[in-house]
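Give me structure tokens for this 510-residue protein.
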Amino acid sequence: MPPASAAVVLQGHLHPAVLLLRLLDGLRHAALPTLLGALAEPIFLVIGAAVFLLHVGYGLLRYLTFQYTLTTEELRTREGVLHRQERRIPIDRIQDVGFESTILRRALGLAVVRVETASGQGVEAALDSLSRVDAEGFRESLLALRSARARMPSCDATSDSQGVPAAAIAAPQPEWTVFVVDTGMLLLRGLSDLRFGAMAVAAFGAYEIADQLGVVTQLQGVGDSFFGWLSRFPWFIAAGMLLALVAAALALSAAFAAVGNLLAFHGFRLTLRQNALCCRFGLLTTRQKTLPRARIQRVRVEQTWLRRLLGVGVVRADSAGAGRGVDDEAPGGFDVLVPLARAARIDALLPAALPGLERAAAPVRRASPRLVARLVARGCIEATCAAVVLWPLYGSAALLGLCWAPIAWVRAVLLWHGIAFALFDEHLFLRSGAIGSYQVFVPTAKVQAVSLRRGPIQRLLGLAEVAVFVAGGPPTRVPDLDLPTAMALCGDLADRAAHAAWREWRTVAV
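Here you go.
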């Protein structure tokens, strides 16, 4: 049973310099109304003054009322005057602790501490802003508490009345460097991060804004003039010039991406301390992320087609409540364990995030070849439907939609070759991807639920999909297995998860 009372480890308030930050925020938000008031209507001066006073007043009230308390059992935060709010977060439910410090906060010696739980709501508590000393002390005390509770026997005469050895809270622990990124890899990360879909969306958005501003006509005139000038040259020269313009645009986009990655992940260092991983990175805005290895729900190794061709990849980790899918990055890159590294280096680093993976050995199995038949059948159905729908509009030209069928066959063959899975002693491994390569490692002890799914075509072909659910992110799907293989995998995963839950319950009960 939990103790009736818990010893207070840390207790404090926000740093007074947070008032200066709120003052600057107020000035920033009031700048536009004040400028409009000076140039146009005086009423905007009143609005600007109200905005400024609201920001400063809110910052002052939060500074005066906010208090945090870290005990051997929980983290408590209190704030508010009229609407008093108190949060109580048990130590065992804290998943991640992150630091963030902009240039201004670093100049003032401040940091924002972000605490996440498994609720899936992102940041559960934000301590904005603490001094660097207080923030580091908070992190060290929290890590020591978690480590002490994990090592604590059921009955220990040396423990204090709250059940946590007092000496363990302040005991220093060594820190081991696991990975350090170099500048070349960061530049390569940006250069290989060409998101053509995002570029197309940005171009469409720019066109819509130009249309709203009424400058599309002018832009069309400029375009007509440019293409008229281009038509004076032979077609091969004109085509070369257009290709050069496209290449220049792509190069400019890649350059911006490279600089952005260099600023975001500058000085990236992954360390291991007290069985917790800590990432430190950032040039303008520095960030730290502390993630206990026991809280990692899934590790993903992502290689887009270009990165696969270059033999490099990105490693991400999902904790409980992360809620992100493939290629989705957490704000600030907080889910990144390795920004970019060679494939061989990644294989050597994975056991640091998933203990036991270094001993993993099991035959890798493939999906059923009937996966190709299912995807081709679906592609034929889609192509036929598109041709039927478009026939009244385009006539016989709608038959071009049937070309999707052979494309679907090529895609299906590539997907089948890219899919493989294996069930190790402590982890489920899945590889997927048609052109790129995406690998997922799921600790079987973290599995929350397993489901077996069969669509109409899958039932016809005797196939099934196994969906593995963990506490963070979308499910990991092992697609198109033979029905007996899928049922065996589903049962094995469920048994392992049940045994892990029983062992955890027994440990807590004892």
